[in-house]
Amino acid sequence: MSNYFSQFGGLWVDQRDQLAVAQGLAALANPIDRQRVEHFIRYGYVVIENAVPHAVIDAYLAEYDRASQTGELMMEVPFHGRRTYDATVRAKPGVKVLDTGMVLPSGHDLCFAPAVAQFLKLLFKEPALAFQTLHFEMGSTQAIHQDTAYVVVDKSPLHLVATWLALEDIASGSGELVYYAGGHRLPETVYADGRKHWNHEKDGNPPHDAHLANLRQWAQERGLPMQQFLPKKGDVLFWHADLPHGGNQITVPGRTRKSLVTHYCPVSLRPYYSNFIAENRRHVTPSVNGNGYMSLYYQPERLIGGI
Questions:
Q1: What does the buried/exposed string (b/e) look like for 190-228 if buried means 16 or more CB atoms within 10 Å of the residue's CB?
Q2: How far apart (Å, rounded) are the C-alpha atoms in residues 46 and 29?
Q3: pLDDT above 90: percentage of residues in the chain
Q4: What is the DSSP letter of 279?
Q5: What is the rounded CA–CA span in Å between residue 21 and residue 4?
Q6: Parallel/antiparallel/unpaired status of strands 177-180 and 245-247
Q7: Rounded distance, CA 202 to CA 191, Å?
Q8: pLDDT tens-digit map of 104-131
Q9: Which of 64, 71, 184, 213 has its CA 20 to 30 A from that of 16?
Q10: 27: which DSSP letter?
Q11: From residue 18, how far is each of 2, 4, 13, 27 by CA, in Å?
Q12: SS3 call for 60
């Protein structure tokens, strides 16, 4: 049996050895840190309230509004793929504006706000690499899924943590984030060739559809509660790589759900996509306290205020 809950390994918090985990927790001098990590271990997520100051968010949103008028941002539109920013579709459910956390000057103040960077370092035992951000105006309405099926850290798929930052107060009916608390320990889905991630060309849709259906079935069989996230502006939810999560349906038309999702790995690792981009684009742009950035969509010279 693996020393970890997953056959693919994981972070120190993913070890089966309770003594080793207990020793790791005991090494955390701050009791609040210890409580947060314990919650993350047990439930697969933790929330830090007021993690990002409102003034920082307001500066970012002002930069976002200015950049959106230049046509230089990239977005992904459901069923239509990637395109340059188009204001006519920004309010459609599921639209993601890509890597604004990397290209806007205030991006590092959001992605690596002190409370965020500090908690990531507790999990990673080293600084973090932010390698994808997704800016949402509206709810994603995305089916319950696990990030490890799509967001891949090369050779270490469980060395992944995501954050969900509320850029405004979030109200019910906006397509709010939902998740199965404790679902990060559900049975593991393994795709062909022993992969943890889904490859559409190799796997097709049936295994993927079965994966999503199984998550709901397994969670319900185990009595795991589906929770919704209704945060205040500045609150951040951290989730485990395998936490099943998605977006509720939007029941109040036009109600926004402004948020920024960031995917991180330890700075010593790389996202899988780095194997398929030009060598000059594999450059890590430094941020504060040893943290760093990469982007699949932008050249390194455009990161952090280069747009």
A1: ebeeebbbbeeeebeeebbeebbeebbebbeeeebebee
A2: 18
A3: 88
A4: G
A5: 11
A6: antiparallel
A7: 9
A8: 999 999 999 999 999 999 999 999 999 9
A9: 213
A10: T
A11: 14, 11, 9, 14
A12: helix
CA atoms within 13 A on the CB side of 253: 0
Q: In angstroms, rounded to a whole number, what is the distance separating the alpha carbons of residues 259 and 99?
A: 13
Q: Convert 263-276 to b/e letters by CB count within 10 Å (16 or more is b).
A: bbbbbebbbebbee
Give the separation between CA 107 and CA 305, rounded to whole angstroms: 8
End-to-end CA distance of the chain, in Å? 49
Between CA 279 and CA 288, with CA 284 as vertex, the angle to 5 degrees is 170
Place of tokens 């100051």: 53
Fold of 12-302: Jelly Rolls (2.60.120)
Strand intervals (E) in 13-140: 45-48, 74-77, 81-84, 96-98, 128-136
Which of the 8 DSSP states describes residue 101? H
Coil, helix or strand at residue 237: strand
Cα–Cα separations (whole angstroms), residue 111 to 105, 118, 135: 11, 11, 12
**pTM of the shown model:** 0.96
- Give the integer Cα–Cα distance in Å for 262 and 165: 8
Bridge partner residues of 175 (DSSP): none
pLDDT of 25-45, one tens digit each?
Answer: 999 999 999 999 999 999 999
Q: Which amino acid is at 259?
A: S
Quickly count helices (H) and strands (E) in the chain: 8, 13
